[in-house]
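Usage example:
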Amino acid sequence: MTEETKSLRDIRLDKLARLRERGVDPYPVASTRSHVIRDVTTAFDELEGKEVAVVGRVTALRPHGRASFADVTDATGKIQLYFKSDLLGERYELFDLLDLGDFVGAAGKVFKTKTGEITIAAEDFTLLAKGLRTPPVVKTEKTEEGDVTHDEFADPEKRYRKRYLDVMVNPQARACVLTHAEVLRAARRFMAEQGYAEIETPILQPLYGGANASPFTTRHRDLEMDLYLRIADELYLKRLLVAGLEKVYEIGKDFRNESIDRTHYPEFTMLEAYEAFGDYRTMMALTRGLIIAAAEEIRGTLKLTYQGREVTLEPPWARVSLVATLNERLDVDVLNEETQTLSDLYVLHYLKRYDEPQRGNTETNEKKAREAMYGASRAKVIDALFDLLVACDIWNPTFVVDYPAELSPLAKRQPDNPALAERFELYLCNMEIANAFSEQNDPAEQRKALEAQAEAGAAGDEEAQQMDEDFLEALEYGMPPAGGLGVGIDRLAMILSDAPSIREVIAFPCIKTDIERAVTKEVALSELRRLYIEIVGESIDKDPNKKYLEYKYVPMLMGIVVGVKRSTAKGIVEYDLRSGMVNDPRFATRKFNEYQNKIRAYFGDEFPKDKLDHYFQEFYIKGAEDAAIKNSLFEMHAELIDILVCEEKIRLIERITVIGKPIRAKTGPVFGFGVKGAWDIKVGKVYFAVTTQGRNETSFRIFPDLKYFDSTIKSGTLSGLIDFTKKSEKLKIGLPIERSELEDKIIELSLIYEPIPFPEVPGPHSLRKKIDSIDITEDILALL
RNA sequence: GGGCCAUUAGCUCAAUUGGCAGAGCAACUGACUCUUAAUCAGUAGGUUACAGGUUCGAUUCCUGUAUGGCCCUCCA
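Running the assembly step on the lines above writes:
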């Protein structure tokens, strides 16, 4: 929190206290409202001169001595209040204690001002909720050319981070969130009218299926099993068709562990519907009916504008054949052409489309395009070609049919062309909105298709579908022929609210949290020793009103732990070298000689003596100057050794970052630090140990994904291991600490990086058990 | 995974070839009984995201990091 917001908030806290002194309850339980604001403005002719009571938030204040104006806004609209000392008497003084953002209730007669503004002359007004923070001030100027907005709350990061402010002050943001709700309502109403039953199927699933995507995984503690967050509802809804239900649907969140962009979000809302005795043509009619019903209900028209471009939903909707369109565009027979030729065509057209350097079309991207295509199956290349050449230019609603069967393992094949699936995707405004099949109900065919997926998975396709024996068994009891449909609700909401990004229609889009936003410092290769941060305490610096948290590094290194410093906020210093305590400088000097020998033993005589001397001089002298703080010659020695060993041993590591300064937290008194390595490590492992002592608990987390290490310890050491055998990872460790707790905290963090391959890739569960049994001390000693 | 851009007061934005970090709104004090981006006078508000480098001197130039945005890739 900055000083600025503090003082603004303090001013408001003062006002709060003054209100209480006057006997005003700033947070009363009840409020009186006779009209919502829109009803007052629309029915002005009837209400003029009559008394009304409205409630809302103060969105503008215009004081004029002993008569003042305020704008009050509720969910329906905005109205002006007129406060006049003649009418209010003593209560007029309370106007001075009002701030932007407060909720108030006001009662009085409706009238029009000289300038024609519909206004309520307050004869009574009540504070309903005092705001302690100033909302962003956005003003709208009425001009001849229309309204001009000033000081718009527009920074995308701030908008997403504080979405409640965004929705508070930006009408467009509010509209997007509400449109999403209206789409849900319209969809439910429409599906109910069609006779569909809304079912809730599991979100936590032992196997994921129904789409090709990477899942999120989680763990059920008591069952001791890994579970997946669903990527689709499909396989469970189809089981209900087996059960004899005929029209089922579900609206729910699906989760796909993939990147975020304008049209993709890892947690998104999907409507899936299955109708027994239907097929994908049935689903076409259903899709069109659903979307038209939603548009008519929400927008009242089928002629829309999306991102400045007109789009019409009026039937008939176009239908294009994927294969035929490509054949025509490319002048080949895609289903029989050599895959290599198709790949070449892809790269050719890719370069054609993205030939401007501004669009990030670098040589590497070209290479990647080539590599991706040259390894891919014909079906995938066909699909990529279609996306590149056709799909991304479709604007008005268009059903795309004739998908390669290979891309649709859960769909039936076309009877007269088994290479193609009974499937469509609906494209609208360059987006894929819906996907539907005639569902595969032949257990043998389904098994074959899933086996092919399993093979692809085994060959490294991370998005291949899993073999679901239970689903196949269910199919063997007989599933009626059926049509199935999936509709992206968020994307539909985008189009209906003219939102440029899917995140606009999601109420609270994900954004990195504060603890991970800790101020960071990069440590150069030569500074790798500094991997341990000590909180020294608060200091007063120049300005007595400002406090800074002081911290300093304790010598550590990657590869070998030289010494671990233990220190409290009071400044007690001692060293534990795993070989005894050191607190005597003379002893430290002796220790240094020992380490010197050790270095020579380690590196042989190749290690240049002048380099050693240089480091020694530099750090000795620096250390002497800085002695009052560092208070230990030995520390210099430790740093020296760190450098010597690090530079030689840690060549594999490109760089490492230490996170260590107090967060400039705007949300609360949190201190965080962590260590983050941006290492290009393909194999290897990192040991870590965190020790805390103190009265209060310390919650402790390792980022990004190592949930097994997310725990709370009161006192003691938690150690573990992170392996980098699967892929290069970033390591972050965060310790959120309340500022008030700093005084009694002792925290140590040790890290050792060992760049050797892991013998096996243990599953998450076995990894956890392994970690429990690790004795980190032995590993440290082994390295020494 | 890659490219480009951005980050300065609570909000929106300035700052000349590298030379004292500024304005409007919001806040505070004062004036004002029909204003509406109210107005007028004054006051206060900054580790220029973070770290390092170059320089007599860095918001400005260089390097790195963080966060965010757009695009490519991926997400069939």
